[in-house]
Every structure is written in structure tokens, then in C-alpha cells.
Amino acid sequence: MSSLDPRSLIIMANFMALVMGAVLGFMWRQYPRTIHGLREWALMPAVWIVGAFLYLVPGRTEVMLWLANAGVLAGFGLFHLGCLYFLDRPAPVRALLGAFALLMGALGWFTWGAPSYVARVVVVSAAIAALHAWTLVVLWRHGTRRLPTRLVQLTLSVHLVILLVRMQSAMTARQIEGLMEPSSVQTFYIGAFVMTVLTLSIGALLMATDRVRSEFEHLAAHDSLTEALNRRAILALCQDEQDRSLRQPRPFSLMMLDLDHFKAINDNHGHQHGDRVLAHFAHTLRGVLRRTDRLGRYGGEEFLVLLPGTDAQAATALAGRMRAALASGHPLDCKVSIGVTEWQGAADSIDGMLARADAALYQAKAQGRDRTCVG
Ligand SMILES: Nc1nc2c(ncn2[C@@H]2O[C@H](COP(=O)(O)OP(=O)(O)OP(=O)(O)O)[C@@H](O)[C@H]2O)c(=O)[nH]1
User: Fold this and answer.
1) CATH of domain 231-374
2) What are the structural domain ranges in the chain?
3) 271-319 confidence digits (pLDDT tens)
């Protein structure tokens, strides 16, 4: 480690950070506008690079050093802002800018007013540590529990500890080393910073990619009007449930629902009102269903509900609760007919269940609607 020259380390890392910034910038231009924070994440390596360049310039002045610190602080500030935007959290930009101005004032004071290298190290390290801690809290509360977020959390945590150690050692060390001295301790701190910058850029890229993937998965599996699963997705889940029940026998039921006289709702109040009724219908059903139950839109105003671990009797009781929820007095409430069927064991199939649920639904319609029949 001691033979590694800090300058070479910074140059190497900056080159990689530049590439990451370019990729993030490309993603900002190309990715769906629903993914926020990419612009700030793309800018952050660029700002760090300007800071690092100012450190490296031969014969750098104190002003350049002061600006270099500004670059480092602004880079971490941009990363933090990017995380807030990405997670759709309110971003206190003014407060951050105010804190940044105060920090730069303090660094100016410890450069020209009462010059102190230790004080500058403490100010910069404490500011970055505070930002890291804040970002960690935000990610913990609002981020996913998936690998990209974990990578960023791990990076921030490790760097936070290193910063605290750096502050502690700067305050207690008798002999102060300049940042660019090629001692093993300084090389370690610079290496940690460089690795943090790189890993955070990679983490940002992975978080954005992960978000795009889950948004596309959601789009591919859901109906945009009602947010219910689409036909293909609900049928695939039905098949999965049957496969599971074949391995570990347990009951499951299907429910076919069809809104009553929906054509009249459209004809009397307009198609848009009809759409709102459908969205309210799906929303109301979700409020009644368990977390493991699945609601899907089977066709126009026909819905399918998969009820794992539920026999026909419990499904019929649930159908009653659904119809009650849809008669709460809300202006978009509607009446619904329901056909219920339970899995009959190994000889049964999803197609067979759908046919029975459909026949039961037909029976409910034939008997006067607004009721449940079991098939
Ligand atoms: N607004 C809206 N209407 C839809 C949508 N999908 C299907 N529909 C309408 O739903 C209506 C279904 O009408 P029908 O099949 O005659 O059924 P119904 O009027 O509900 O009569 P019953 O089912 O016998 O009670 C049609 O007018 C379709 O145009 C949609 O996404 N939005």
C-alpha cells in the first residue's frame, strides 16, 4: 500500500469515475422520466473530478485547495440529493446550499484567518460523515431491501467509520501529515475516498437499473387503469398456485367477478365515469383482500381473484364482504355478480376451474345479479 502514490490513485479513480458519470448521464437522457435523481448522480463524479484535479495541479495554491474541498463536499451533496430525488423524498436544497456556504466559510477561515490543517480535516470529515449518516437514514427508511441499495448502504457505512477515525486521529496526532504525502495512512484515506466515490457511482447506477427493471416488470404485469394484475400475470399465478398445491396439498379458490349492468353505467354517465368505477372497484376489493390474495383483470369489466389457502366456503364469505364493501355509499360504488370455485385436487386444472367459475358467474347473473354462486 505504501508504494502506491496517492496521485496515481486519484488519477486512476477519476478516470473510472468519469466513465461512470458518462454512463449515468446517458441513463439520465435515456431512462424513463419517472426515475428521478439521475442528473444529480451523473453530475457528482464530474464535480469530484474537478475537486481532485485541483488537488493534483502542480504548485496548487490555497485557493485551489479550498475549491478542491468545495468539489468534494458538493460531490457528496449531489449524491445525497440524487438519493432524495430518486426516492421521491422532499429535498431541502436551500438548507443544503446554506450549510455548504457555511462550511466553505469555515474552511476559508481555517485556511486564511486562523490556518489549521487539523480544523480543515475535521470540518470536511464531519460534514461528509453527517451527509452519509443522513443518506443512510433515508435509504434505510425509504429504499428497497435489494442488493444495489445494500451496496450503497455498506459503502456509506464503511466510509462513515473511516471518516470518524480520520477525525479522531487528526485531532490527536502530534505530527500532521499533508494529504499528498505518500505515507501509508494518507494513501489509505485517499484510497478509501476513491473507492467510496467509485462504489457510490456504481451503486447509483445499479439502483437506477433495478428501478427500471421493477417498473417494467410492473408495467408488463399490471393493468394501468385498475392496477390489478393483467390476464397473463394472474393466470400465471393461478398455475403457480396449482403447482404448489400439488406438492403440499392445501385448498385454494378462484373467484370470477363481473360488474352488473356496466354497459348502462357507461351509457348513462360516459366512458370516463365507467373507468373511474372500474378503478374504484379494484381499489375497494384490494382493501378487503388479504396480502397473499391476488386480483387480476380478466377482461373488460370481468375480474379474477386467486385465493390461496382458501376453500369455497371461506371464498363465499369473502365474496359477501366484497359486495358489502361495494355498497358503502361511495358515489362510484357498483353491484357485482360473483362465481366461486375451489380446487378439486390433482385431477383438476386451472382451465377446469375457470370454466366452473364462469358457469357459476353466469348462474349468478341468471338468478338476478348482485349475488354469489359456487361452481
Ligand atoms: N369504461 C369502460 N368500460 C369498459 C371497459 N371495458 C369494458 N367496458 C364496457 O363494459 C360493458 C360490458 O357490458 P356487458 O358485457 O353488456 O355487461 P353489463 O352491461 O355489465 O351487463 P351484465 O354483465 O349482464 O350485468 C361494455 O359496454 C364495455 O364497453 C373499460 O375499460 N372502461
Assistant:
1) 3.30.70.270
2) 6-221, 231-374
3) 999 999 999 999 999 999 999 999 999 999 999 999 999 999 999 999 9
Nearest to 341 by CA among 320, 359, 367, 368: 359
Closest CA to ligand 1's atom 4 = 300
Residue nearest to ligand 1 atom 32, measured at CA: 275
Task: Measure the CA–CA gap between 154 and 141, rounded to whole angstroms.
Answer: 15
Gap between the terminal Cα atoms of the chain:
74
Three-state secondary structure call for residue 226: coil
**Cβ(269) to ligand 1 under 6 A?**
no
Spatial neighbors of 145 by CB under 8 A, at least 6 apart, are none
Q: What are phi and psi of 92, to 5 degrees?
A: -80, 75
Percent helix / strand / coil, the chain, rounded to 5: 70, 10, 25
Ligand 1 pocket, mutate which of 262, 271, 278, 358 (most atoms under 8 A from CB): 262
**CB 271 less than 6 A from any atom of ligand 1:** yes
Give, in words, the CATH class of 6-221.
mainly alpha
Q: Taking residues 3-22, what's their average pLDDT? A: 81
Give the DSSP H/E element, type plus range, for residue 256: strand 252-259
Name the one residue in this structure whose C-alpha cell is 368505477: 277
ipTM: 0.93
Q: Name which residue sits closest to atom 29 of ligand 1, judged by CA.
A: 263
pLDDT reported for residue 5: 77
Q: Could you tell me whether strands 372-374 and 336-342 are parallel, antiparallel, or unpaired per DSSP bridges?
A: parallel
